[in-house]
Write a structure and sequence with these properties.
222 residues; alpha+beta; Glutaredoxin; Glutathione S-transferase Yfyf (Class Pi), Chain A, domain 2; 4-stranded mixed beta sheet; 10 helices; 7% strand
Length: 222
Amino acid sequence: MTIPILYIGNKTYSSWSMRPWLALKWGAIAFEERQIPLGGPGYGRSKIPDVLAVSPSGRVPVLHVDDMIIWDSLAICEWAAEQNPTLWPQEPAARAVARSAAAEMHAGFAALRGHYSMNLRRKAEPAKQPAGENVLADIARIDALWSELRGRFGGAGACLFGQRSIADAMFTPVATRFRSYGVALSAPAQAYADALLADPDFQDWDAAAQQEPWFMPAVDSL
């Protein structure tokens, strides 16, 4: 197998790119990173020409492994776990719950994601528009989920299931949103968010984001 190629978007804004990037890093899986700046013609319609050239869905992230193309963030994480099974908890019940939490993030929390777009360069202050009922419900669900899983499965570790897992990779961009928009959390949830933001691999991603020359005015104005 040749070295896989992970195509990602802007590190400042692309939360879905961050998730499998972290999983591959945490799994110690060698890969080549290639970045495609998002925005411009075709953005928002999955028709950016440079993305379409490598991704059948017109979206990033996308992983190329020899002749195979994996074009979904959670599917890329699952591929990574097949290379390194420690990316999921080893105990069956914990593993099933971790997959449930990761899938809930993958499919849900649309109100939160729409109101609080990821922007790693944004100053930590409230959004200009107050959060509505659906956003607040998403925040409450995430806070309760983090607190429950950390208390039930975390043990002495800082992560939801003790050591870093795909579930943590799925939620790391959410922690950045809470930081960027000054969202108040319970003490257990805030401790978990702080642990995610202190992760060395996330900090490498964050540092690279601060140096990016690209800006997306629609996100920066929130």
